[in-house]
Structure prediction request, 306 residues.
Amino acid sequence: MKIKLLFGFIFLGLLASSCYREVVVEDGFIDEPVLNVNQVLASKDLWYVDINATRGNGEVPFLQRAFTVSFVSGTLYANNNLVGIGKTGNGLGIDVGVYNGVRGVLEIDHDIDGYWDLDVFVVNNSTIELYHRGTDTSYFLRGYQRNNFDYDMVFYNNIQYFLQEYDAWEKVYTSQVGAINDFDDENFLQFLSGDNGGFFRSSIDSPGTNSNNLQWDFEGDYQVYDIANDDSLKALTLSYDFIGDDYFELYVINDGTIELYHPDSGTSYEFKGRGYIQYLKSDKSANAKKRVKVSNPTMHVVRQKK
Prediction:
């Protein structure tokens, strides 16, 4: 268990409150300011959960799920999905519980995960640390106002979770331009998380088949890549036994449609999401997705789609 000392930092003029703690030193008193947690949390519209900065081996489930959290007049909001981010709840996400700040401690009653006490520490004028003593785990949250928050950045930096937010992706378009290749026969894809990353399934079932009735013909690993010197592009590889790693440029058309461009054949495919999975207020959905530390490998290629 670690022990931390909180000094009198100035955080947007809100750290020092009218609440004081009296400390007896021989015959005198020293007034020591106490962190006003509620004011600090309310000073930013959105707090981005920087999951890669997490320290410790424990877990606070609702922080592990969330991309952002917001604290508004005692109500806790979270963006647990990338689908709809920036629009759901006027950008704040969904109501997931209630909170109160008491003398440097954040008390949360989460709708699914119950009661949690988290120590609050100010790292700098835009970052706070939420520390859970029971598991000796720290989460680091970066604060933003809605008018300067880059929702697209969150989307692209976590795109592997977006692929998992639908039960299946149905092919709805194949370009006339491009050479015939094995991927032409694939009509459905499904992306799932695994113990060692992610795996996908594919199906050649007829277009229009209900996602509950799909027969998955193949299962393999998939990987999302960052592209060197191109922040707006991601690459996707699908590992097939019979053709090896099939490489695509991955484009997001909207939060329900993706385009896969196949450089080897010059073919473009569009897929629409079927069966949206909203991580809301059911035990099943709550346990279905947890963010983990991830650093996408970088691919040194040049964008091929014109």
Notes: Helices lie at 37-42, 61-65, 151-157, 159-163, 283-288. The chain has five helices and 19 strands.
